[in-house]
Amino acid sequence: MVNINFSSQVGVWWTSDRWPIADVIDRAREIEQLGYGSLFYGEAGGKETLTQAAALLGGTERLVVGTGIANIHARSAPASEAGARTLGALHPGRFVLGLGVSHAPLVEHSYAGSYEKPLSTMREYLRVMDAVPDEVEPGAQRPARLLAALGPKMIELSATAADGAHPYLVTPEQTARTRDRVGADKWVVSEQAVALTTDREDGLRRAHQHLHMYSQLPNYRNSWLRQGFDESDVVVGGSDKLADGMVAIGDTQELAARVQQHLDAGADHVLVQVLGEDPSSDPLPTLRELAPALNLSNT
Questions:
Q1: Cis peptide leading into 69, omega within 30 of 0?
Q2: Is 4 inside a domain boundary?
Q3: Is residue 61 one of the residues assigned to a domain?
Q4: Tally: H helices and E strands in the chain
Q5: Average pLDDT over residues 56-84
């Protein structure tokens, strides 16, 4: 099992593309001080993911930084592997390379690529990464690779050709299924969206806003159907049932309880994604309130 030096079992997932990188680093430092063990972020046409990881790793001391995910259509496999190895050599155990096949609309329109046979595409991408010679960062352990694995075959690939899975928009029950498929010696790092509010209508509003884009992407719709939701749930913005399944709504104890459900289901690490007024809202006010309920150690 490739080592990841998580200082706690709970981290953060944050869409920070619209923030100046200096401000992102400032918030990463406080996230680290609050006791969260990681900061993950996506890649969908904003900041270049490996450059952002280098900045965040250099600006913090212990925080694990993860791509959640690096789009395999955005760079070649040798470039991903070489960049990841360099980050791993500079910051051993603190960088996680999350990889994903992304979605057809993004790949075809933003990257002018072809979205065909995602499983085969990912398998070949990993094979080419493995073929990068050892002379690239000789002696350095390569960072852990996690796959954005929603379907059963991609989950299996995350166990056989990578170091584990990064489930996103899943229930604790799906985390348990992922753990069963990857086995005990692979990483499972699950994301959990949260809305800190005792006003249920406000929480549902934030949840539906969060799900609006994802509910129009076939990969997520199919994932939710496999998780036990039905066609009436996967409407644009999601049903209230889907919103409750994907987003923890309530006070700090209720949010912490959902995080614990993922841990009890077999997650090694859970990433809290704070839902505010928009996707790039500052997560720190909620993270500050939530840290004591998660029993994080403020350092």
A1: yes
A2: no
A3: yes
A4: 12, 10
A5: 97
Residues 215, 219, 220, 226, CA torsion sign: positive
Residue with tokens 């493995």: 130
Instruction: Give whole-number Cα distances, 273 to 25, 113, 163, 169, 210, in Å.
Output: 17, 29, 23, 10, 10
- Residue 298 included in any domain: no
Q: What share of the chain is helix, strand, coil (3-state, %, to 5)?
A: 45, 15, 40
Report if residue 2 sits inside a domain. no
**CATH code at position 277:** 3.20.20.30
- Tally of domains in the chain: 1
Q: Which structural domain, as residue segments, surrounds residue 130?
A: 10-292
Tens digit of each residue's pLDDT (9 = 90 or more) over 116-156: 789 999 999 999 999 999 999 999 989 999 999 999 999 99
Write out the two tokens for 130.
């493995």
Q: Could you tell me the end-to-end alpha-carbon distance of the chain, in angstroms, rounded to an integer?
A: 28
* CA 243 vs CA 193, 202, 219, 226, 250: distances in Å: 10, 12, 17, 16, 13
Sequence-distant (≥ 6) Cβ neighbours of residue 29 within 8 angstroms: 59, 60
Residue count of the chain, please give it. Answer: 299
CA quadruple 151, 118, 72, 111: dihedral sign: negative
Q: What is the dihedral of CA 249, 255, 257, 262, to 10 degrees?
A: 90
Spatial contact of 161 and 184, defined as CB atoms under 8 Å apart: no
